[in-house]
Design goal:
This protein is mainly β. The chain is built from no helices and 25 strands.
Length: about 350
């Protein structure tokens, strides 16, 4: 799905000064006024694979003879000054945002995508020689739609990174989007753009790897091999013309990272069972995580519903004997939820929790 400027199309190229270490990413646009839009590129990178200074800025080429140097806009200001430094969301993953605005010259179909010289991180199972393969995502924007200039890509409630288990079970990734314009959305999985030799994640002879086109839930049943995998989810926007006919108004893409761990149980069988306990179960508004040993271990703690939607995610060190998590602001309904705990060694504990 690589596209270049041709007659009738205008391309937007986002060029970042990076060498390697991109794990996942997504791209968005938001209507501001007239023909003016905000463009945002979100990247998740491997902190250990490349110098942090390489992420300080990018240059966006709009395809109309103009360009803009865009400083990274999230996180504190430090070594990247005057740009921001991005935000580490785990000890090994950094999240970076690059945001700018642009006024398009008029009506047309615009393909927004990042440059072809950004590289992925190493050892992706389904992308051969991934450290030398490009990381490329794009979005399509149509102006106008039935005479209306505004068109905004959907937003999502989770990050494009998920862990699964090599245990013969299914795991699910929920990419359901929220569209500000009320457009209908459809979902498809595609090979990662520009990844030579790409193969879809393997599910064995009896397994499945598919996405539900109407609701965006990706199901991978029976992963076969431990490792890192990437897939591309393409989200299309469809708008009703008022007569019951739907027109494609745009799409946006998420390059998603799946990490399959060698955990042996989908719920309670994990080395982490010896290191921590979670109570009470059933719970009301609070959970207490008790650390049975202190090893200065980083934990990522995620609460999900049964569709795989992330409800909250935070990080902790076991430097204290316990921590209390207040969930009252989530306004959870009564029912069953999944509490997933990851440590920095790749161990995963997934507990079934009941909300009273």
């Amino acid at each position: 799905m690589l596209r270049y400027t041709t007659s009738g199309f205008i391309g937007i190229f986002i060029s970042l000064n990076m060498n390697a270490g991109i794990i996942a990413g997504e791209i968005f646009y938001k209507w501001l006024n007239g023909y003016t839009y905000e463009v945002k590129l979100c990247l998740y990178s491997d902190i250990g694979s490349t110098s942090l200074t390489e992420y300080c800025e990018d240059t966006i080429y709009f395809g109309d003879g103009t360009s803009a140097v865009v400083l990274r806009s999230n996180g504190p200001i430090g070594s990247c000054s005057p740009a921001h430094d991005g935000i580490p969301i785990t000890p090994y993953i950094k999240y970076s945002e690059y945001i700018t605005t642009h006024t398009f010259p008029g009506t047309g179909t615009y393909y927004i995508h990042n440059s072809l010289n950004i590289k992925r991180d190493s050892s992706i199972f389904n992308i051969p020689n991934s450290i030398n393969q490009i990381f490329h995502i794009e979005a399509m924007l149509t102006i106008p739609v039935f005479g209306v200039n505004h068109n905004t890509s959907p937003n999502y409630n989770n990050i494009p990174i998920l862990d699964g288990c090599l245990d013969g079970n299914c795991f699910h990734f929920n990419s359901i989007g929220n569209d500000a314009d009320g457009d209908s959305l459809s979902y498809e999985i595609l090979p990662c753009n520009g990844a030579t030799g790409y193969t879809y994640p393997y599910a064995g002879t009896s397994g499945t790897y598919s996405i539900q086109s109407a609701n965006g839930i990706l199901d991978w049943c029976n992963p076969q091999f431990q490792g890192k995998y990437n897939t591309l989810i393409n989200i299309k926007q469809w708008r009703n013309d008022g007569s019951g006919n739907y027109q494609l108004t745009g799409y946006s893409q998420r390059d998603v990272r799946f990490i399959v761990n060698a955990c042996t149980g989908i719920y309670d069988v994990s080395p982490l069972n010896e290191l921590l306990t979670v109570s009470p179960n059933p719970f009301l508004d609070e959970l207490v995580i008790q650390f049975n040993q202190t090893k200065n271990t980083h934990y990522q703690i995620t609460l999900l519903d049964l569709t795989g939607r992330i409800l909250t995610c935070f990080h902790s060190l076991d430097t204290k004997p316990s921590m209390t998590v207040n969930l009252s602001t989530l306004n959870l309904s009564k029912g069953i939820y999944l509490l997933k705990i990851n440590d920095e060694k790749g161990n995963v504990l997934i507990k079934k929790m009941m909300k009273q």
